[in-house]
Amino acid sequence: MAKILVIYHSQGGNTKSAAKFVAQGAQAAGSRVELREAEKAKSKDLLECDGVAFGSPDYFNYIAGGLKDFFDRTFYPTQEKVAGKPYVAFITHGGGGKAKGSIELLCRIFKFKKIAETLLIKQRPDSAAIIQLKELGKKLAEKSTEKNHE
Ligand SMILES: Cc1cc2nc3c(=O)[nH]c(=O)nc-3n(C[C@H](O)[C@H](O)[C@H](O)COP(=O)(O)O)c2cc1C
């Protein structure tokens, strides 16, 4: 059974809501899921999961500071140990969504393996977005069971 980490930052609740749907999708596909606020997550969480989903609001065309801080704290302790680990990402935004570029850049630097297009969700997920978010979680779960990062 794959272990999926869903890690997010959320100030107003939109990204938290999106993260819960990604987690539900992964769970429904048979994975064990840890849903973590970025501020509380540690390197160990990243090392121990089989696949990871990152969620962030778009703040000033960049990812939220809380999630950036997670990447900052975990880079050296996980360097070269997470290469090839499957990842997906989702951004909630107010009409822009340029933070997609920054999250994908960081994931490339960590050498995670992108297994689906990053989702852009406007504000709180609506019924169409909920389907996409659950599908994203399912895809991550399916790819992560293959343990293709080893
Ligand atoms: C400080 C701040 C900066 C923001 N900057 C942008 C932005 O550059 N582009 C954009 O599309 N939305 C921007 N927004 C809107 C948020 O991305 C959007 O409301 C998001 O869904 C908030 O997520 P949250 O409820 O999880 O905090 C900004 C919001 C805040 C509070």
What is this structure, in a nutshell?
The protein has helices at residues 14-28, 43-48, 65-78, 99-110, 127-145; strands at residues 3-8, 32-37, 51-59, 62-63, 86-93, 113-114, 119-122. It has 150 residues and is an alpha/beta fold. Strands 1, 2, 3, 4, 5, 6 and 7 form a 7-stranded mixed β-sheet that branches.
What does this protein look like?
By secondary structure, this protein is an alpha/beta fold. The chain has a single domain, classed as Flavodoxin domain (Rossmann fold), CATH 3.40.50.360. The protein contains 5 helices and 7 strands. Strands 1, 2, 3, 4, 5, 6 and 7 form a 7-stranded mixed beta sheet that branches. Helix 4 (99-110) links the parallel strand 5 and strand 6 (113-114). The radius of gyration is 14 Å and the shape is globular. The mean pLDDT is 96. The protein binds flavin mononucleotide. Flavin mononucleotide (FMN) binds next to helix 1, strand 3 and strand 5. Flavin mononucleotide is lined by residues 10-16, 57-61, 92-97, 123. InterPro entries: Flavodoxin/NO_synth, Flavodoxin_CS, Flavodoxin_dom, Flavoprotein-like_sf.
The unreliable regions are: none
Task: Report Rg.
Answer: 14 Å
CATH class: Alpha Beta
Strand percentage: 15-25%
Give the rounded overall mean pLDDT: 96
Largest sheet: 7 strands, mixed
Helix content: 40-55%
Strands, total number: 7
Q: What is the 3D form?
A: globular
Order of helices and strands: EHEHEEHEHEEH
What is the overall number of helices?
5
Bound molecules: flavin mononucleotide
What is the CATH topology assignment? Rossmann fold
Structural class: alpha/beta
CATH architecture annotation name = 3-Layer(aba) Sandwich
The rounded distance between the terminal residues' Cα atoms is 15 Å
Give the CATH superfamily.
Flavodoxin domain
